[in-house]
Design a protein that fits this description.
3 domains, alpha+beta, five-stranded antiparallel β-sheet, two-stranded antiparallel sheet, Replication protein O, Arc Repressor Mutant, subunit A
């Protein structure tokens, strides 16, 4: 809607009329209550002209359903509606405050963030009555209305009501719904990509591309890290890996399983060595009592002596098999008292085995059978 036509320049007459652009705030359809409040504010006595203009702008902006609530408007919007400069606008606010028509709350401050918040304007009860937004209170209800007005200021502000004037120009106080999510911290296993020239935003983008390709960027980097760190163009090489049909998840699981198996074997070896070290100087025999095992040299040597007197030493990595046989009951600790001293000294040639053999029946061994066969042959020749 056009407001008026500007006067013609001197000597031009009506041949070149100039049209004034309408104000942006003049395109709003206001309810009757707001129009009556603006009309009363423009004809209010006892205040200056500039104060009446600002009061009319506040009347156009306040929520008719909540006249004592916060006025959701910026100073640029209010100064535009009052047709005043910013300095004149602040002088008008001071006049209205001194007249008791508005209440200016102190500016909020967020101490932890070191930022200043918003400073809202509130209409007083006197202004709401003069503008016709509320009925004039009686003497009995005046105290109750004042208490409600003060409690409204303390309460946490709510979004503007649907009846607020010029709601499209009201600033959204909750931008979380449309605000772009800021990236978080790069995962620990992907931070090594920074040494190859990958920026954090590129790493997050590659994570999205890997997810769209049905892969995990962590699996791809872990499987191909040795080749990736020596590549001339690691970014292109990594993107080519993401588009390949290779199942890096399966390779990652196989690699993790092999690593877990190797760790389990190493843990079993260390446990067996520690157990064998605790058995240093002790002797063991098998279930048939034909072989004796002696642990010496702080658990690093296993001496094996058979019943026929042959002494041998076990080969390397014997500790795990020895512990399995001991726990499985295939060998047991020898209880004779004279064995410990001989085993500690390392002399296994002159062991007194008569007491040990007397406790169990003697069995014919292969070497003894061969020896008896030779003796019979000699007897026949004689």
């Amino acid at each position: 809607m056009c407001i008026a036509l500007a006067p013609c320049a001197a000597g031009e007459g009506d041949s070149h009329p100039q049209k004034i652009e309408p104000l942006f705030t003049d395109t709003t359809n206001l309810p009757w209550v707001i129009l009556r409040a603006v009309h009363r504010a423009a004809r209010l006595d006892g205040v200056s002209t500039r104060a009446r203009a600002v009061l009319a702008a506040l009347a156009r902006t306040v929520d008719a359903a909540k006249p004592f609530g916060e006025i959701y408007a910026r100073r640029t919007l209010l100064s535009e509606r009052a047709m005043q400069s910013e300095r004149t606008f602040y002088r008008s606010l001071a006049d209205l405050d001194s007249a008791g028509l508005i209440d200016r709350a102190p500016q909020r401050r967020y101490v932890e963030a070191g930022l200043f918040g918003r400073a809202y304007l509130y209409l007083t009860q006197k202004a709401a009555v003069l503008l016709g937004l509320i009925e004039e209170p009686t003497v009995q209800s005046m105290s109750t209305d004042l208490a409600q007005a003060s409690s409204t200021k303390v309460k946490r502000f709510e979004p503007p009501h649907a009846n607020v004037a010029d709601g499209a120009n009201t600033k959204d106080l909750s931008p979380i719904t449309f605000q772009k999510r800021q990236p978080g911290q790069v995962p620990q296993d992907l931070q090594r990509l920074r040494s190859l020239g990958f920026l954090d935003f590129l790493i997050f983008k590659l994570m999205r591309e890997a997810r769209e390709a049905g892969k995990r960027l962590s699996d791809v980097v872990e499987v191909c890290w040795q080749h990736l760190r020596h590549a001339k163009r690691p970014i292109n090489y990594l993107r080519a890996l993401l588009t390949s049909p290779t199942d890096f998840g399966h390779q990652m699981r196989a690699k993790a399983a092999a690593l877990a198996e190797a760790q389990a074997v190493e843990a079993a070896r260390l446990e067996a060595e520690a157990t064998v070290k605790a058995l240093d100087g002790r002797s063991f025999v098998d279930v048939l009592r034909q072989t004796r095992y002696t642990v010496t040299d702080h658990g690093t040597t296993l001496t094996v002596r058979s019943i026929d007197g042959v002494t041998r030493q076990a080969a390397a990595q014997w500790s795990q098999g020895f512990i399995r046989a001991l726990r499985g009951g295939q060998i047991s600790e020898e209880k004779l008292s004279n064995i410990t001293a001989v085993a500690t000294s390392g002399d296994h040639r002159h062991l007194n085995t008569e007491g040990r053999l007397a406790t169990s029946p003697r069995a014919l061994t292969v070497s003894a059978a061969e020896h008896l066969t030779k003796l019979r042959a000699l007897c026949r020749r004689a």
